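During the no-cost extension, the postdoctoral fellow (Dr. R.K.) reprocessed legacy sequence entries with the updated structure-token encoder. One reprocessed record is reproduced below for audit purposes.
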Amino acid sequence: MSQHPGTRNEAAVQTGFSITDQGFDLHFAGRLVLSHNPDSPVLAMARGNPTVEMVRGNFRIEDAPAGLIAPTRFTLEGDCVELSDEGGPIARLVLDGHIIRAELLRPGYDRLHLYFAAEPGETVWGGGEQMSYLALNGRAFPIWTSEPGVGRDKTTELTRLMDEQGMAGGDYWNTNYPQPTFLTSRWIAVHCTSEAYSVLDFTDPKAHHVEVWSGATAFELFAADGPLDLVGQLSARFGRQPPLPDWAIGGAIVGLKDGARSFERLEQFIQAGTAVSGLWCEDWAGIRETSFGRRLFWDWRRDNQRFPDLPQRIAGLMARGIRFLAYANPYLSNDGILYEEAREGGHFCLRQDSDEVYLVDFGEFDCGVLDFTREETRAWFAEKVLGREMLDIGISGWMADFGEYLPTDVRLADGSDPMEAHNRWPVLWGEVNARAVESRGKTGDVVFFMRAGFSGVQQYCPLLWAGDQSVDFTRHDGIGTVITGALSAGLVGNAYSHSDCGGYTSLHGNVRTVELMQRWCELAAFAPVMRSHEGNRPDDNLQYDSTSELLSCFARWSRVHAHLAPYVRHLCDEAAQLGLPAQRALFLHYPDDAALFAVQDQYLYGADLLVAPVIEEGAVSREVVLPGEGPWRLCWTGQDFAPGTHEVSAPIGQPPVFYRPDSAFAPLFAGLPEVLGK
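Re-encoded structure tokens follow.
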């Protein structure tokens, strides 16, 4: 090894490489980020031999790498390290400002492993939207957008049954929205710019290991004095969302898929005192009954038989201050009308062995995948479908579903490798939706919401939703996962998240209970958007208008949601100016308390509200951590609590919600009991 005469020594370095007794270090903003020595090489490499299997968006990805090399020799010249073995140079690391560029130099090597320095007791977060764990320590997280699975817990019977049915059970790391970005309690962040399959591996407390299926990539570094600034930097990097419009935060969006009868049912919600901001009919394009449940007809044109006079009905709602929302996804059913137009226009991904459209089985029906690597296809879908079929008839928002299903053996128009394009697909899908909205001058007024994502989707997607939770209280797939999802996604630049109030997935006899429906209302009222869903099996499950009790419950909490609109507007302003999420992990405002680093079952709603939803079946109290100094006031009783851990009474109808008595919004919060009691 050698040292360039101008290389800095470790004691003086703030950012840059430095020689050590046995190797070299890299510091960034005074933090150690890489440390190389013969016993612990900073880089390893191999030749991959992958197998990939997909069944309806569920993937099994395995690798049998060969030729593993972990070089110990190096040459350091300024901001460039060249790693070598007996055969000569094999890899290069270059520091370019805040970016580490890594390149493998030996032909055929396409598995890059970089080991970032870790300190004892350091906590790690990130990975995109993670549903099971907020703190990532001790686990590995493959970064690959996919169906998250049903159950997501290999110890449960439901997960076992779903695994038998098309690998559909999932695991703790499966997510619609992964992202190769991690933050640590040293207040640094690392973002891998590659779109290829990768793994964030935090199983070794001595190193943060990132594996990338590529021969070259870059890692962006960020540093701050605390988490608020660090999260703000990441938000600026990936693109901030427009503030949510007043209509979206001013009441509940009622989800009904009952054709024209949905308008009649909506009137029952209004008569019950529901603060209604929108009617969401995902079945606007028709339905298809399958063994999974009541699904949609994937031909994104209004079903005139199911919804006669839809533009007029939409206009009538708008005159009453109620918006109409719909549904779309980036696939077209091969028995629909738009399919033929898309096929003739060359808008589909093709088979590798022919010019035939690549069809994907979505569960008893086949669809073509829109090839968004083509500018013509992006423009066609944005204008023809989202523009003319939806926006031009007055639709104010939609679920922009899916985006995770790009197969790895399709042929793409731009010639790119589908293994690398797969993770990019949700970002392209988000861009198409944002383009359509912008084309009508509706950015900041029309709201579409997505479940799939990857690095960069933030600049396009105005609102996340947490995907398809099971209709239960289970640890890895039930109501509580929507909190973890919102908190983790918020750390990497997503300001707004919400969930299907009531849950979605009902299979193998798992159906909604009254208690679940009530508790989900309590949670949903304290999210930026409150929206119900009838689920995949609406006829088998309770709905919010099934009983007067449930209807009254939904109405009460919709009024709570509407009452908080001035505070949510304040949170939107903070998101736009500072990049802070509306729902925040406790440590964001209290970074000196390490005991808060892994708390994922409660959250700060802005800085002034603390929400601890009840997410355990049968619970009538729960433990609540109140951070910081000064009292926290329980909304429903006015009782003040000192900071610390408390067992708080939480009967149905009174979830633990606290506010700061010295908040400028304290009078608003103090009015919540009256609003709830009306």
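Confidence is low (pLDDT under 50) at residues 1-12. The chain has 14 helices and 43 strands. The remaining legacy entries will be reprocessed before the final report is submitted.
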